[in-house]
Amino acid sequence: MDLAAWDDCVDVVRLASDAREEYASAPGTLAVIASDPIPAGRVIARIPCQALLCARHCALSRHPAFQHVQASLTPVLSLTFCVLYEGELGDASRFASYLSLFPDVPLPLAWDPSSDEARWLRGTEASRILRRQEHAWTGGYKYIGTSYSELRHVWHTVGERIMLEALGARVSWAAFLRAFSSVSSRAFVVDLYHGLSMVPFADILNHGAPNNAQIESDVDAYSAEMGGTVDVRAIDSIDAGEEVLNSYGELGNAELLCQYGFVLDTKSGWERCSWDVRVPEECTQLCACLECDAPWIHHVTEPQQAADAQRASGDDGLPPAYVDAAGAVYDFAPVSHTNRHDRHCPIFIDASGRASWVLWRLALGLCSEHVYGYEAASANTALLPSHVRVACQRITRLCHARLSTMYIQHHKDALPPTSSSSTVHWAVQHAWQDWHLLRACLARYAT
Ligand SMILES: C[S@@+](CC[C@H](N)C(=O)[O-])C[C@H]1O[C@@H](n2cnc3c(N)ncnc32)[C@H](O)[C@@H]1O
After folding, report:
1. Which residue from 198, 206, 214, 267 has its CB within 8 A of the most atoms of ligand 1, so it is best to mutate?
2. What is the pLDDT of residues 27-45, one digit of tens each?
3. Is the CB of 25 under 6 A from ligand 1?
4. N or C: the chain end with fewer CB closer than 10 Å?
5. Are residues 287 and 297 in contact, defined by beta-carbon separation less than 8 angstroms?
6. What global pTM score does this model have?
């Protein structure tokens, strides 16, 4: 498949590993570069749905061993088996040339715990996400993403057998893990008919914040099997020589690292340091630092009016929530939860170091019998200064507790050389970003 021939306005190139200066994204991997200026609104590529690698089109779907378990698999795992199967077919697969383009993406969930990268990851938001995925799997509740234990379980209980029956040969765990990384870092939902799919060409676009292109498909359609396309459209004008960048979603660097194996050098604005009360050690840390009881903590919510106002304003910050009796304005107005990760973990500090509403209410003591919450405090401004001060101290304590668990907090003077492997580079960068976020929070809530 000659990808570059699909349209005349882009080149697909492999960025040199020292291309950092020239392009911000993904040195050493494939990228799409405009060969001529591209006006905003222009469709850069139309990918026919027949070219998608998805469970519908994969020959594995015809094997009884796979059909038998497919309904019980998550879409990610189902597609992982399809990609693995096509990969094992080698040149006999109609996707062979497409599959040969996939780079190896070592995801943190499979990093060796004794490796340098795993060490630098300690205490970061990404390491918490991995722990939460593990906890959700063993605790039987929903969380975004797939845990390492779930992967191992599915491989050993059904995966090895499906592959043996479909291919007549054993397939390795390492190959399964590689297929999973490819799906995690490249697949997206096209429409109701194809579901989660690998989309040739569209998945060569790297992630940019902001992006200058987007991928379009009729996500609600069920009948796209005949003649449908997935389109790549410029949403901004793109100069000749500029990289065409997609957005992988409203993701902070922790999610980018866990799902895609890289982080941006800049903050996307979606960065979070969050606490999930369903994970025992995170709940214990919250209760100790905020001086609250575990049974209450699950019931604290964001005030509906605050959430509505904040979302309606399209801003990620409200006007200051507190003006004290003397008219002094407190500039640490809490933030609403706005992205899908926040819905799972509404207790967080955002990219600018501000506490979420739920964290703020907990810190104010709204979860205890002595209710000095936002509503009570606004009704009696005389209460404000002392309770706000206590809330600030509690949040500060929480940040210190979290910083103390971070490897980088104790090893800032021993950073690895810039020539280290890319995985070490990503881990250190993510740890730095979390460290700065927590320091920003400490500065904001200093009383
Ligand atoms: C959908 S693929 C993008 C195409 C990829 N460059 C290739 O060679 O096929 C996603 C992978 O590209 C890399 N990537 C994408 N955007 C990146 C960025 N802004 N910085 C660094 N790596 C990026 C990551 O390895 C990610 O897992």
Report:
1. 206
2. 678 899 999 999 999 999 9
3. yes
4. C
5. yes
6. 0.90
